[in-house]
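Lecture notes, unit on binding sites. The following record was shown on slide 14. It pairs a sequence with zinc ion.
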Amino acid sequence: MDCVFCKIAKKEIPAKIVYEDNNVLAFEDIEPKTKVHILLIPKKHISSTADLKPEDKELIGDIFLSAVKIAREKGISETGFRIVINHGKDAGQTINHLHFHLLGGEKLPFA
Ligand code: AMP
Ligand code: ZN
């Protein structure tokens, strides 16, 4: 499958990886929108929130907790951060492999 995030997960294309375990990968966004901008993905391909299955519950929890851990490590827990998932066209989803944005390091514009 021609999916850029699957390729990053398989180390076929490079990324600045900040966290990895068996099921989760976190790396720096190539075009950071904020001072801290990390993407977290499931290593297995899930196209979007619409494709989540009940068996993905633990995986999604793991990704969320990893984001909180990275926020702590990046020193933005105190100042604040945002965890965002874009779903579909109106939200601006450009990559069809589920990803969580961890945004922070500066005052964030809208909610
Ligand atoms: P979204 O608009 O929610 O689909 O977010 C996709 C994000 O992936 C954007 O913020 C892009 O800058 C980022 N991105 C695209 N290609 C890469 C890549 N090869 N490595 C890291 N981040 C990427
Ligand atoms: Zn993929």
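Take-home: The chain has one domain: 4-104.
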